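Reviewers of the previous submission asked for a worked example of the structure-prediction workflow described in the proposal, so we include one complete record here. The input consisted solely of the amino acid sequence. No template or homolog information was supplied to the procedure at any stage.
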Amino acid sequence: MENNETLDTYNRSSKELAEYFKGIGPRTKYIKQALELADKLDGSADALELGCGDGRDAVEIIKRCQTYTGIDYSTGLIGLAEKLLPYADFRVADMQNFDYPYRKYDVVFAFASILHIDRASLGDLLEVVARSIKVGGIFYITTEYAPRYKKKWKEDKHGRRLFYYYTPKMLEKLGEKYFFNVFSEIEDIEAKSWTIIALCKK
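From that input alone, the workflow returned the following structure tokens.
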């Protein structure tokens, strides 16, 4: 798979990337919004995070949820997450092949993680995630925006990574069989445009 190079970059440069990501997370505003949309501000939510990275968002999610599971395909990043939160449920797993339990979660978070998945694979992911979310639950996604779908390799001092870009409308269309859109916007963060969307399970 061409995306193996992306995984190699995350494993090889996990500590350096985690240090860089400190300026991005935790995404407390979005976590609160997702829980509010799921009507779970009382601490009773069961949450899953796809692409949890080094655990920086897990710190805030765990405070506000009954249960939390974080998955990431990078062993390097999961190792950092386990050091940060040794009591948390972190697992090395590819979100596209994870064994999703049936209707377990109130909220599934995907912060800057689906941007490594192509459109066809994302359609499949939306289907399996939908089966794992309770009716009325929320799939909350942030991902880099472009006015049209595109694929792009980026290379920096950490290595090469493959990215895919989506608009809110694209995500809504891909998931329309299972979800309806309850919130979406395009937000500029650190000189980049981001798609922010909350999809509610039908």
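The first strand starts at residue 46 and ends at 50. We consider this example representative of the routine output the project will generate in years two and three.
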